[in-house]
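hiii, so i know i said id send this last week but things got crazy w the move. better late than never?? heres the sequnce for the chain we talked about at the cafe, plus the structure i predicted for it. fair warning i was half asleep when i ran it
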Amino acid sequence: MVAKKASNASDPEITAIAAVYDALRELEPAAQGRVLEYVAGKLSLSSPLNDSERVKVSGSQESFPATSVRVAEVEKSEDTEGISPVALKWMKRSGLAQSSLSTLFSLGVDEIDFVAEKVPGTSKRQRMHSVVLLKAIASYLSTGVARVTHDQIKEACLHYDAFDGPNFAKHLKEFSAEVSGSKESGYALTPRGLTVATEIIRELAGASTK
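okay and structure toks below
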């Protein structure tokens, strides 16, 4: 009996598609088209694209597949200026659109900040927890590092009625599974913290669209 293929990963066509995609995705559309045309020529393949499926580069005589243009348009469909490449990957992974985040963060400026009118939580401790996570995400969007200073946390807690002076340091220690660091070095999100922050943002973004 002939054994069936375990998965698509063993299919040489799927493997080839993945390899070609990985090789081309970082190139400009015009370069993508040139590479595809060259490889097709070397393999003596007829182009699968007809003239109606090709476009001209503005100001150039070079042509390339229209599909490359559509990919580029999708990638640039949202204004992601100012957002770090690391955060862009996180947004894509988490299914978070720029339009949703713009209701919570000051996107489009050099230093992105959390600007929502309120934070989740019925107690100061709960609101402080939200403030720490969301302020760290604001830094993540700007710099690619989810780190926030002690002073930034305190200032934001005062703004969102989340500052509990006598228990401020105690609460920070209680959040250690999600936020690590110290008053001197600042506080950074742990992997668990990034996950929890992502869920909070999804809930806030969903509520803002209702």
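btw Residues 1-9, 47-78 have pLDDT under 50 and may be disordered. thought thatd interest u
miss u guys!!
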